UniProtKB/TrEMBL annotation:
<dbReference type="Pfam" id="PF13774">
    <property type="entry name" value="Longin"/>
</dbReference>
<dbReference type="InterPro" id="IPR043546">
    <property type="entry name" value="Sec22a/c"/>
</dbReference>
<dbReference type="InterPro" id="IPR010908">
    <property type="entry name" value="Longin_dom"/>
</dbReference>
<keyword id="KW-0813">Transport</keyword>
<dbReference type="InterPro" id="IPR059071">
    <property type="entry name" value="SEC22a-c_C"/>
</dbReference>
<comment type="similarity">
    <text>Belongs to the synaptobrevin family.</text>
</comment>
<dbReference type="InterPro" id="IPR011012">
    <property type="entry name" value="Longin-like_dom_sf"/>
</dbReference>
<dbReference type="GO" id="GO:0006888">
    <property type="term" value="P:endoplasmic reticulum to Golgi vesicle-mediated transport"/>
</dbReference>
<protein>
    <recommendedName>
        <fullName>Longin domain-containing protein</fullName>
    </recommendedName>
</protein>
<dbReference type="Pfam" id="PF25970">
    <property type="entry name" value="SEC22a_C"/>
</dbReference>
<keyword id="KW-0812">Transmembrane</keyword>
<comment type="function">
    <text>May be involved in vesicle transport between the ER and the Golgi complex.</text>
</comment>
<feature type="transmembrane region" description="Helical">
    <location>
        <begin position="188"/>
        <end position="205"/>
    </location>
</feature>
<feature type="transmembrane region" description="Helical">
    <location>
        <begin position="251"/>
        <end position="267"/>
    </location>
</feature>
<keyword id="KW-0931">ER-Golgi transport</keyword>
<keyword id="KW-0653">Protein transport</keyword>
<keyword id="KW-0472">Membrane</keyword>
Amino acid sequence: MSMIFFACVVRVRDGLPLSASTDFHFNQDFLECRKRLKALSSILARYPSRGTAKGRDLSIHFLSSGDIACMAICSSNYSTIMAFCFLEELQWEFAASYDTTSISLASRPYAFLEFDNVIQKVKWHFNCTSGSRAKVNWEKVEEEMKFQPPVELKLEDAELMNGLANGGHAEVHVEVVPTYRMQRVTPLGILSLVLNIMCGALNLIRGVHLAEHSFQEDHEVIGNVIAFFLPFLACVFQCYLYLFYSSTRKVKTFILFFLVCLCNVYLYGLRNVWQITFHIGVASLSSYQILTRQLMEKQPDYGV
């Protein structure tokens, strides 16, 4: 039967339960799945905000925001999108029920015993009704999952089985490379992209023009051609670093900025002081925008 069997709210950093549950099923598969859910809850901080741990008959889905995560055990044939609609609804209900900015979750971890009533109501709604409210969120969740697909885990992994014996602290095999959401693009960031593209185009045009007309007459201008092409590549990579997350982005940003400055100083004579200042200024603005745009996950949520 396609349905949701169990749901809970936990703290991401250590898996501390923030809700009680009256869901008790004596099926052995369910009991084993709950043990693995507990083990998985203790290592949620290692994974992106959305994930699925698939088993033969049962699956675990989790959705985290800030330091709060909602988890659910569903039958394996239950719609993944509907499961995340359920978790989003549960997350919204939890945020609406408790002012977590004024309640210390660390000192009052079991202050949310009564939230089980809300869990049961939402679970019943998704299991027993047509889910009209869920249909409203269906397209939104489906769109989000296209850009940020849930990480895929396996309940049968030996690492997770070993983690059950060691207090639930084990690695789980990851099948999908996690994606990262960046903060929204700002108007100043859009301006830096436009200026960067313009500078890159100017460098490319000047480099191609110089290569076509000078190689036949003077082979010593190859240094100038390279000095135009390198800033063009630097502009392209600066746009990429601003739009997408990359490891060691601070080091890469400084290297690209230094490359633009060095090449423009080398081109003094082919470019006047104002042109050089303009290109270096655009590179400075782009570098600043790259370094100030952070991952959304770094922003605190729920005040926890």
